[in-house]
Amino acid sequence: xxxxxxxxxxxxxxxxxxxxxxxxxxxxxxxxxxxxxxxxxxxxxxxxxxxxxxxxxxxxxxxxxxxxxxxxxxxxxxxxxxxxxxxxxxxxxxxxxxxxxxxxxxxxxxxxxxxxxxxxxxxxxxxxxxxxxxxxxxxxxxxxxxxxxxxxxxxxxxxxxxxxx
Length: 165
Prior knowledge:
Blueprint: H1 3-8, E1 15-27, E2 32-35, E3 38-40, E4 62-74, E5 79-82, E6 85-89, H2 92-104, H3 110-125, E7 127-129, H4 130-141, H5 151-164
Parallel strand pairs: 1-4, 2-5, 3-6
Antiparallel strand pairs: 6-7
Helix pairs in contact: 2-3, 2-5, 4-5
Region (Disordered): 1-61
């Protein structure tokens, strides 16, 4: 089928990927790519950067050098949904700092509830979502009114920074 005819029928130009180590890809009319995976830690680096493929797709297509998570869809009414969770192993230092910080928060406060939930998840599974840790670190380092800048808060922010590095 010619590219013009494929475009007219809503097929798009396709997708070309140099290296893919995770994620979801779909091409075509009403195509749907959805990534709901759970990843532990950061994506493993490839052997150097992957070049954008030399044979790029036709009009309406997508060329990607490297895809290590996420979702890509091409075509008429195509949809890409990325709702993966990236999990991080919790260090003993972070557990201890979270307990100290929780003890400093007033009972019933929003910060106390969030810390209780985060600590319970970390204790039960040994892991927490990377985004959740990043939000807590931002609250601790950004002067948020819900969490006081205490020694425990600073310790939690530092432990999170080490995990997310």
